[in-house]
């Protein structure tokens, strides 16, 4: 099934394919420098995975892109527009290009599944309720939950709730989907269903994905590029084949042998 996302930039120069760019981004929490002059970019339509030990700054990057936290230094650009530093109005505009799925699903417990998905498109994008519902039904088909439109989230399994959260993020037609360890809070038997849905989305849509995951098999399947983090810096990057089969850095080898 093909689900449209927003029109992608159609310029002809090499720059126009770059959707996200972080330049010299530093983030500190007190005396703790969590990201240290970080540079990387993600091209439109690509699926990039961030791997590395706990505490290496991966989630902080996603939170910076979601504007849940702000950098101390550096610039972040999304689709050619600056997200940081920028006036608040511009930050709110640029931020609409980005959707995120968290470990915890954070669905509204008192609203039906359909309403959970339609609320933001109606309230934030000003979409008509009919259009939002039509789109929500398409997305529920994509995540395999067409029969759960009217259910309350509390009646669903964790895996089903996470699939609703994925549909809810896509309903805002983001250009990039950030996935932060989306299966970490799930019972093991529910993990595969959620990962299958994400594989399907990676294959069948043109959305750009930036994932933090401990699921190395999944990372290998969906990624065009894998970035290995350690101590707030990218210490190695490359194709999944290179990173998972012949990493250059000892630190990457150590990390992979501990998690694989
Ligand atoms: P990862 O996702 O790689 O596990 P995080 O980005 O979550 O790493 O965290 C990187 C570091 O930043 C950790 O040392 C963590 O304790 C610290 N950190 C993250 N968020 C906060 C916060 N809100 N306040 C203080 N320290 C934080």
UniProtKB/TrEMBL annotation:
Its main location: membrane. Keywords: Amino-acid transport, ATP-binding, Cell membrane, Membrane, Nucleotide-binding, Transport. It is a peripheral membrane protein. It is found in: Cell membrane. Pfam families: ABC_tran. SUPFAM superfamilies: P-loop containing nucleoside triphosphate hydrolases (SSF52540). Residues 20-256 form the ABC transporter domain. One of its GO terms (cellular component) is plasma membrane. InterPro entries: AAA+_ATPase (IPR003593), ABC_ATPase_HisP-typ (IPR030679), ABC_transporter-like_ATP-bd (IPR003439), ABC_transporter-like_CS (IPR017871), Ectoine_EhuA (IPR014343), MetN_ABC_transporter-like (IPR050086), P-loop_NTPase (IPR027417). Belongs to the ABC transporter superfamily. This is Ectoine/hydroxyectoine ABC transporter ATP-binding protein EhuA.
